[in-house]
Amino acid sequence: MQDVNKIALYKILMLFSVLIISGFENFVSAQSKEDCLMCHEDKTLKGKKYGRSFSVFVDDKKLQSSVHVDVDCIMCHQDLEGTEFPHTENVKKAECYACHDDAQKLFDEGLHGKAFKNGDRLAPTCQTCHGSHNILKVKDAKSAVAPIKIPFLCGSCHKEGSAVQVQRKIPQDHIIENYSESMHGDALLRKGLNVAATCASCHSPHRILPHTDPRSTIARKNIAATCTKCHSEIEQVHRKIIKGELWEKQSHVLPACVDCHQPHKIRRVFYAQGLADQDCLNCHEKRDLKSGVDGHSLYVNYDDISTSIHAKIACSQCHATVNSAKIRPCEGITAKVDCASCHAEVGEDYKISTHGKLFASNDKNAPTCSECHGTHHVLGKLNSKAPSFATNIPILCARCHREGEQAAVRYVGSEKNIINSYTESIHGKGLMKSGLTVTATCTDCHTAHRELPHTDLQSSVNNKNISNTCGTCHFGIEEQFNKSIHSTLITKTDKQLPVCNTCHSAHNIRRADAEGFRMDIMNTCGKCHEDIAKTYFDTYHGKVSQLGYVKTAKCYDCHGSHDILSVTDPLSHLSRNNILTTCQKCHKSATKLFAGYFTHATHHDPEKYPWLFWTFWGMTGLLLSTFVIAGIHTLLWLPRSLQWKRELKKRKEARLNDEHNPENKV
Amino acid sequence: MTRKINSITEPQVQRFTRLNRILHILMIISFISLALTGLTLKFAYTQWAVILSHILGGFESTGFIHRFAAVIMLSVFLTHLIDLFRLKKKENKTWISLIFGKDSLMFNKKDLQDFKNSMKWFLGKGERPQYGRWTYWEKFDYFAVFWGIFVIGSTGLLLWFSEFFTQVLPGWVLNVATIIHSDEALLATGFIFTVHFFNTHLRPEKFPMDIIIFSGRVDLEEFKIDRPAEYAELVEKGELEKYFVEPYQPIVIKAIKFFGWVALSLGFSIIVWIIYAMLFVYR
Question: Measured between alpha carbons, how far is B132 from B102 in angstroms, rounded to an integer?
Fold first, then answer.
């Protein structure tokens, strides 16, 4: 900002001088602007340099609106002063330093200036950034160096794939991309805050130097000053981490701004560590170091840290109450590490979660950060050895949530045998058996740090939020579901509408084409649609299902599953236009009339199905009358038949007697 | 033992032709198959149905058995009709004289008389009627098959070829056909396995079974008592000896009885199942 002010001051001085000098010049000099434009107004005018022809047309309009409107051509093109027309074709570049000598000096000291001096053809000049005849005020939004244009301006050379980025030694990559994702870039480019830091704010506009140069605005000892140009109160909010004033006084020991806040978004080159860690290790490397309070070991295996994701984080960043002003800087350390000082968002989530609430109430079972993540050997969740790596999460959670363990014991909900059920579920199998790390683990549904019981409206597994949670992976399904009759977005009712786990369960999720699921779905739908489920069992599909076979149509084969709509909806699978296609999924040669079959018919409803009702009662009448008549006939016959049997026996005996005594024969 | 000696010593009378006996056996096999497989669907809500359906190889398998048995039963029916044509030709009669002839299974005046007299006999107000070649309940059974084949067969075909028939008929006809098919089948199985079984096999004088339909021959003595009118007529015409036949070997009788027992047991099991399903599980 100071630079800008200086520039403004110089401009005013310059204008004065120009006004004064121009009064003289008209007498002394042969060339006024008009003289030059006599030729250079011609759009077809061509110059030639190094054998290449180029336009030397000067647009007077642009010149008129530029900051240099009152500056004569020869003020910049000094080598042409007093030359005859037409002047030589070998014209030097415009000389800005005549007026802007301070800026020129800074430029010469910087990387750009040195490169230019060394004849680097990629080196930028004043014109590369500021333009030539059309230079505008910096504050003018149309200026080439207006804040919002700076990232693009610098990016034209420093973006990936550009000649500078490829051929010159630039220690960072993806600078522009990362910047645009950073808080500064976001503020400038997306929110249009033109006070947001641009490239030039940190690197200075003209004297760009590498961070290794002590004069650089981004050198370790200067970075605090650079950042506090804007973040002037930042020391107040960093008291928890470090004593503010030490940043500038003892910048070699303490972490610099960029140690925590990467210069662009992703940091590849790290500043050399301060000495702080070594100071700590002087004592903590000793294996027999014990706490004076309770005697627990204070030994720190530095290998644990150096192989952890916090390898580049200094001890004092976590053990933040360290005070390097003291002889024993660590004597201020009394509390456990508060990870939330860096992982603020995670910390907030944890506080809301059941885990965090238990911790706040001093519950001894409450898991803390270190319970899951470890202490010095913290690994990122993408590291396969980390307890928070996808395939390890169920094992991690099972430590407390397996049947019989402390969390399972105090759990009062309806889910049973959660860990084993999960392991057998499609997600568990996908993760543990197929090794698919994208499969949902505990934390994908319950969140990693904000797990809450499903009854809590804030919970990711609350009825209100569950479809959204499942939708993070099953996006297309959620989209369909949100349009379906079961979605609260579509159906407004006091009744409980089904959500993902109503049908799929929470921890026992199976493939929807698996036998168990196909059989259970009828009961699941039947829980709410009791009557319609009953009538389903009165027809062929239902009867075969009752016998235990999966092949006949189940609820969702006809009604659809996630895209289920009211049968009166024209988009429903069962609407007038779609029903035939639905039937034809199984009944290939079904006709329009065929689709008129009642799949939920009942013969108990004379209003809705008179034909079925009267047929049933007709048949029942026929049955009853036949059986009554035949039954009476049989019952009457039975005693007589018994009598007849005895009679026949008598007759037979008599006949046998006759045969044995032939004399008796008549 | 006495009976065995009798059966060897006494002549037997031919009552059924070989074709009729074969047809009846096929009828039994197809009827029981149809009943078992059909009732698994009708009583799908019973545990019995689930077990039976799995024993028979699943719903697709029972479906196949059902249709296969249906084809057999229709063939039996058609064969009988063809046999009637053959009989008409053989006896050189008109249809009228064949159908309304004395030995026909068509109801006639004597049947009405027999029925009245039977009722009297049942109520103890008369003697046992002089039954002829066919009793009225036998004739009823015979025509019940005609009715059953027509009703169950037509609705069955409608359901079998539902996609074909619904080119013309509305879909709800299938629902109606299902009710008719299933309830008429219930009537048929219920009637055959109770009334027919009692009339033919279980009434005390025939208990436990009458094997005439399988052997086709009856003891002369039994014939005299059972069908007095027919016996008297044959004696009068002097044609009785024409029908005398040799009795079957004991091994054949054993096989027949085994088959009879299987059929009877299946029939009873089905009745028990139906009663259980209707009384205790029906919703």
Answer: 10
Q: Mutate which of B59, B150, B155 to test chain A, going by most A C-beta atoms within 10 A?
A: B59
**B45–A636 CB contact, under 8 Å:** no
Q: Does any domain span residue A230?
A: no
Residues A329 and A349 reside in one and the same domain: no
In this structure, are A344 and A422 located in the same domain? yes
Of the two residues A272 and B191, the one the predictor is more confident about is B191
Q: Do B179 and A616 touch (CB under 8 A)?
A: yes
Q: State residue A268's pLDDT score.
A: 35
Do A324 and A364 sit in the same domain of this protein? no
Check CB contact under 8 Å for A537 and B44.
Answer: yes
**A379 with A475, same domain?**
yes
Residue with tokens 């075909």: B157
Q: What is the pLDDT of residue B141?
A: 93
Same domain, A323 and A444: no
Question: Which residues in chain A touch residue B172, judged by CB atoms under 8 angstroms apart?
Answer: 596-598, 601, 609, 611-612
Question: What confidence tens digit (pLDDT) does each residue in B84-139 have?
Answer: 999 999 989 899 988 888 888 999 999 999 999 999 999 999 999 999 999 999 99
Let me know if residue A608 belongs to a domain. Answer: no
Query: A581 to chain B nearest CA, in Å?
Result: 14
The whole-number pLDDT of residue A240 equals 46
CB contact under 8 A, A623 and B58: no
Residues in B 215-234 with any Cβ partner in A closer than 8 A: 221, 225
Taking the alpha carbons at both ends of chain A, their separation in whole angstroms is: 152
User: Which site among A550, A584, A614, A619 would you substitute to test the B interface, given the most B Cβ atoms closer than 10 Å to its Cβ?
Assistant: A619
According to DSSP, residue A92 is labeled P
Q: Does residue A537 sit at the B interface (CB-CB below 8 Å)?
A: yes
Helices (H), chain B: 2-9, 18-42, 47-55, 59-91, 95-99, 109-122, 136-160, 162-165, 172-190, 197, 212-215, 220-226, 228-237, 250-276
Measured in angstroms, the CA of A549 and the nearest CA of chain B are apart by: 7
Whether A641 and chain B come into contact, CB under 8 Å, resolves to: yes
Give me chain B's average pLDDT, please: 91
Q: Which residues of A touch B198 (CB under 8 A)?
A: 634, 637-638
Parent domain of A157: 2-215
Residue after which a domain boundary falls, among A579, A602, A625: A602
Taking every pair of Cα atoms in chain B, the longest distance, rounded to a whole number of angstroms, is 66
Collect the ranges in chain A with pLDDT lower than 70: 1-31, 234-256, 259-260, 262, 265-276, 323-326, 662-666
Cβ pair B170:A623 closer than 8 A = no
CB contact under 8 A, B203 and A641: yes
**For residue range A32-47, what is the model confidence (pLDDT) as tens digits?**
777 788 788 888 888 7
Contact of B145 with chain A, judged by CB distance below 8 Å, is answered with no
Quick one: pLDDT at residue B7? 44
Architecture per CATH, B17-99+135-215+248-281: Up-down Bundle (1.20)
Same domain, yes or no: A384 and A473: yes
> Do A569 and A642 share a structural domain?
no
**Both A173 and A65 in a single domain?**
yes
- Give me the number of domains chain A comprises: 5
Task: Using the Cα atoms of residue B163, residue B169, residue B170 and residue B171 in order, give the sign of their dihedral.
Answer: negative
Look at residues A461, A491, A510 and tell me which one is the last residue of a structural domain. Answer: A510
Yes or no: say if B49 and B269 are a contact pair by the CB < 8 Å rule.
no
